Amino acid sequence: MSEFPLVLFTFFSQLSVGTFLALYLSERRGGISPASARLASHAAFGAVAISMVCSTMHLGDPAGAWRAMLNPWTSWLSREILVFGVFAGLSFLYCMPMVRGTLRQLVGLLGSFLGIVGIVCSGLIYTLPSHPAWDTPFPVLFFLLTAWLLGPMLLLCITRRDEATDSGQCTGCVKILLAAQLVITCAYLLTQQAWLDTNSTLAAVRILVGILMPFVFLRGTSPSWGGAFLLCACGELLGRVMFYDNVIPYTMFGM
Amino acid sequence: MAKKMAFLVNCDRCIACNACEVSCKNYYQQEASVHWRKVYYMQEKELALPIRVGVSLACNHCEDPACMKACPTGAYRKREDGIVVHDNDRCIGCKLCMMACPYKVPCFDKDLGKVTKCDMCAARQDNGEQPVCVQSCPMDAISIIDLNDGRNPAMEDEIPGMPPRSITRPTTRFIRETAGTQIRRDD
Do B40 and A252 touch (CB under 8 A)? Predict the structure, then answer.
């Protein structure tokens, strides 16, 4: 697990963006209680704050982390740090009670947009020709799906007691996203197998725990969002560990 | 026309003694796991006859360096003479250049907390000296050439076993091995 700080950074940043986006859309639609909205906004900010701390743990010179923003002209990593920096600021603002009305909508819209842009930047960092399995649309797709799966699930855990929560529609959307994750994960493992060193058992566990078992928790009229979220989160973490560890780059004379 | 400096590796002369690798480590006193120059062996399946061919490689000072594009701090710079240099003061040790380089050139120095790599002994060359690896090779298997010099010998720009050169367009050039007569006993 050589890149565990990056596993945590990508996981928490994507959880944060997903939660923020789901919260913004829920507030636009209406029906979410102020207490739930406050808790969700704090969760989104907390997640992005954790992700920023985790990202510095990956550096050999953490004190120089600010220099990571100095080359946005060619480096996707620079762009990612800049965008997520602004997103973190906006998610902090979104927690403030005095940010209301039109200003809140503006902060929510901009934060949602920048969060998605940040995730796309994160994925494009890994579209490296030196790693053929990553030089595909899969990194961006994986990262977006993590956000779109975990964010709404976390929000639904928080808002489960709000009467206006339309669980049926939400359940349907999450199931579609889980199905998409299954298709994309299998497509990655099958189409890129020449450039992956995949442990079949771990891949099976990742699919079973993170994609198939959540379906069980989402059955019926009272889905268990907490259970589904925990399983999905474990699956996403395992999937991310495998993403970093299983890739095979070009070799030098077979080494 | 500006010079375009590059390594010329003569695989026919190389005896894989590793003097180049050791002299580089000795001169720059790097941390143990850092190898700016490495001696590889061509794989037998790439060779017509069962011979051992050593290939000494350091940074390829590519025309389109992946390390330079990936680096978030702008720590890499390609000089006018083509040498790609790395600024340790700017580096934050994110190791993205190590992922981006197809040739596994940048090395993470645990003591410094930063990435380092071969810079073709740019400072020595600026003083009119040869790179340490070139000077130490007992077989004159490594040399520095100007790719814009029309007097260069016949050379190849890629050898089997390396990643596709279209990724970063490395400037390292090669003189391929020649195998002598071999007598095989099949009884």
Answer: yes
Instruction: Name the strand (E) or helix (H) holding B76.
Output: strand B76-78
Check if A252 contacts B (Cβ < 8 Å).
yes
B153 and chain A: CB distance < 8 Å anywhere?
no
Q: Which residue of A has its CA nearest to B44?
A: A253
DSSP secondary structure letter of residue B130: P
Could you tell me which chain A residue has the CA closest to the CA of B168? A129
Burial (CB count within 10 angstroms: exposed 0-12, middle 13-18, buried 19+), residue A122: buried
pLDDT of residue B74: 96
CA distance B108 to A206: 31
d(CA A232, CA B79): 49
Pairwise CA distance, residues B175 & B154, whole Å: 7
Phi and psi at residue B149, to the nearest 5°: -85, 120
Q: Which of B44, B94, B111 to mutate to test the interface with A (most CBs of A within 10 A)?
A: B94
Among A3, A196, A66, smallest CA distance to B108 is for: A3
Q: Contact, A47 vs A13, CB < 8 A?
A: yes
Tokens of A146: 């993590």
Indicate the burial class of A173 (C-beta count within 10 angstroms; 0-12, 13-18, 19 or more): middle
Answer yes or no: is pLDDT of B182 > 70: no
The pLDDT mean for chain B works out to 92
By C-alpha distance, which of A219, A224, A112 is closest to A172?
A: A219
Predicted ipTM of the assembly: 0.89
- What percent of chain B stands above pLDDT 70? 96
Mean pLDDT of B16-35: 94
- Per residue in B127-167, pLDDT (tens digit) is 999 999 999 999 999 999 999 888 878 899 999 999 999 99
The segments of chain A whose pLDDT lies below 50 read: none
- The pTM of this model reads 0.92
pLDDT at A31: 76
The Cα–Cα gap between B39 and B53 comes to 10
